[in-house]
Amino acid sequence: MARIAACSAVNAQRDLYDRLLRQSGFAAGALSSERFNAHLRARALKLRVSGEDACAQRILIDDAEYARLEAAFSPPETWLFRYDESCEFLRTRVREHVQTHAHSVVRALIVGAGGWCEPVTVAVAMLDGAQGAAIEVLATDRNPEVFAAAPLFAGMHVRSSIPAWAASYLKTSTVGVHAREDVLRSIRAKVADAQTVIDIEVLRSSKFEVLVFRNVAIYLEDAVRNRIFVGLAKLLAPDGVLLVGHAEMHAAAAATGLVPHAAAGAFALTRRSEVATAAFIAPMPSVLEPTPWTEVHRQPLVTFDGPSDDRAQALDPLHYHARALELELAGDISGAFATITRALYLDPSCEEALVLAARLCAVRGAHADAERFRMRALRSHLDRMYRDERDAPER
Q1: CATH architecture of the domain covering 84-279
Q2: Residue-wise pLDDT tens digits, 72-124
Q3: H/E element holding 313?
Q4: What number of other Cβ atoms are within 10 A of residue 219's Cβ?
């Protein structure tokens, strides 16, 4: 009997890990066995069960515990007014909408919210833009813990300055920042995974003026992420806007056919082309012809012939990242890749450069290389987040 119980426990851990691989939608490289085992040990202590084996068995039958396990591999990096230009864009967008749609309710759907920061940020921007019109924000996440605590913001959740137009919607106390009651009344939080929420709303023929999918997209496999983008596009109102993360603009446009908006820092897509959109992102041909190598591509990695400012630029990986983006938008994929490798030579852990390198590899059809760059970007992202939390001053 003891041997049977031992086998059952081992099978529970294996079954749980297999379920995580199958159900989470995360890229396999992001699911380290070390973090899996560490989570089991920590939850076993918290749940007061006898070790990791019993903990695995518990998680297999407890949806809330399983959601916590997934959250251990996708910690949300989110804070109030994280994308300030995007918040300003949303505020203006809602104002324009209510001017042409009197007496309508402006609706927003956030999938994979990761906590209260994004729902409150979106609600404040929409309320200020709506100028008295009604708004509704449906915020969803599959992890019940992210909505369990009251929306109170302190420490790393208030790492950006609060825009002047948003200050009146928030209250500051000795323990942190609170949202005003009308902000909280406009938000409805729901525990559910992104695809389930999308499927339900599609069946209801729902339409939303604002859709937000930012926090978890970086962790997902391409197929899973693209399926969510396609579903969200079905829910987008004719004059609505889809807000995504800065690294997901190309993927969202390719999956949905939506058009990236030209506004700098908005990270937004719409159903129709708007002013100067063509300058923002260049369409990629279905079959890429390699760009011939030129003397520009063969320039030395770092030169010091110019003034000191030029030398500083030559040692800055973000200088090469910006140049690579310009080449990508011009359709010179080979030149862009050659340039981004210079950035990675200077800083192998530069998250922005790794994300761009992954995208360029995918465009060139080098999907294995793209996945490796994507995993390196994810590790860099998590390392930076942990450093920020460690170094944050106590409040």
Answers
A1: 3-Layer(aba) Sandwich (3.40)
A2: 777 666 789 988 889 999 999 999 999 998 778 999 999 999 889 999 999 99
A3: helix 308-314
A4: 24
